[in-house]
């Protein structure tokens, strides 16, 4: 069991922890937070019942509460400042944090305790202090993790002792500074503390807390995972990694894979967003009891609303009968969100290590599915994961949304070094986990691309788990294998649409994308000293093969 009582070893943690003990701060409960949230000026109470309110100590008639954040409805990555990277600006940020904690404690503040981790082998206590006027976000934070109350607190007391201090989070959405128009997030990952300033969006609190928990996990020789994992029947677990909009949740949460699964192939969902894989033991652990999902597919009076605890940045309507109901489908704005129970699925809090791991990429140069036969290349393709950012999820300019981006291991919340992740994934692959790549976007040259249907992606996962895909070498890309029986498994037009050709224009396109990956990882190595040539060389080998095809001697 971690303990908040360990002496702080940095001024950052000393400032943040000291704020918890100010006279203006008092420990709260989920019930008190619900009462305060009901009174928040911008909060709306709907007519939808809160799912199983008694488990959180809420009134039996508690309702789903809606909060809308104004113009910013996504995460703001450019607000992040890592203590280990501050350099000569360190004193400036220390002064800012000192002023922040002073002004924060001039207001009435609540202190909520929660637990991150759903298995006795990894449970970390977390603490959030925020103004009483931010009660809705605090309530959501408690629903997203597990609040410090029975039965979870009793399990925590019996959990494995970790040599780690508790996670400390302070958040002040009202803070502002003209030098930081996008807000400011100060992170000391070595001391497990974070200050989230000037940011209303709930996702900042969720991902900020997870960022620290993932880092703790890596220090415990675990793999930090921003992805989904589930089991299908008696097959080994399968994990998918991808940013929002890549199909991560759709592939994880589907109970029948578009009708391709048999009744005996029962799906058990562990989680669709955050987990840790143990390298010292055959164990994967979910970090949260609930799901923080988009509402773009939630229809009016959708049965799924039954499982909601809360929602953010969605519309509310009153049809004249006094009932206020949620209007989803992103009609109000992009990236509407909800916190909902996993009870809508067959669930478990843990499972074995994944037998198969999929990197979800939106890279037009790649066909819908490939198997990686080289462990070094498996890490390289994860470290150079290419995708498009989901509309509205990130607070970035519109022109940036259209650009292909590389996000290592689909985890923009990583604060430990990239090489640490590379080493952990390499260990995982050496333990026997198989690596695959799936392109869930479009395939083909620009202007000639073909959409990869979600139904095809689901069918691919079904056949992959069953071991029915026969693989052949992709001669243009050493280390990758492509289906030899795609027509038999996925339909008569599979090869016509998705089989890679050896036409020069396509090979040049593929080479250019390889070079994008090589350049990205080389910059990590040469400029940031955070990459090893061993994870770049497999891509260089593949590029060299294409060069020889395009320009034979």
Shape: globular
Which percent band covers the strand fraction? 25-35%
Count of discrete domains: 3
For the record, the CATH architecture of the largest domain stands as Alpha-Beta Complex
Distance between the termini: 64 Å
Structure at a glance:
With 553 residues, the protein is an alpha+beta fold.
Characterize the structure shown.
The protein has 553 residues and is α+β, with helices and mostly antiparallel strands. The chain has three domains: 11-42 and 67-220, Phosphoenolpyruvate Carboxykinase, domain 1, CATH 3.40.449; 223-289 and 349-500, Phosphoenolpyruvate Carboxykinase, domain 3 (Alpha-Beta Complex); 506-550, no CATH class. 29% of the residues lie in helices and 26% in strands. It contains 15 helices and 30 strands. The strands form six sheets. Strands 11, 12, 13, 14, 15, 21, 22, 23, 26, 29 and 30 form an eleven-stranded mixed β-sheet that branches. Strands 1, 4, 5, 6, 7, 8, 9 and 10 form an eight-stranded mixed β-sheet that branches. Strands 2-3-17-20-16 form a five-stranded mixed β-sheet, covered by helices on one side. Strand 14 and strand 15 (284-286) form a beta hairpin. Helix 1 packs parallel to helix 3 (90-104) and helix 8 (375-383) runs antiparallel to helix 10. The model has no long low-confidence stretch (mean pLDDT 94).
Question: How is the topology of this model organized?
Answer:
Layout (H helix, E strand, L loop, with lengths): L10 H9 L5 E3 L2 H10 L4 E6 L13 E5 L12 E3 L7 H15 L4 E11 L2 E10 L3 H10 L1 E2 L4 H6 L9 E6 L11 E5 L4 E5 L4 H18 L2 E11 L5 E4 L6 H6 L13 E5 L2 E5 L5 E3 L3 E5 L13 E5 L2 E4 L5 E4 L9 E5 L8 E2 L4 E6 L7 E4 L2 H9 L2 E3 L9 H4 L2 E3 L11 H13 L3 E6 L2 E2 L6 E2 L2 H13 L4 E3 L6 E4 L2 H5 L3 H5 L5 H23 L10 H14 L3
Helix pairs in contact: 1-3, 2-4, 8-10, 14-15
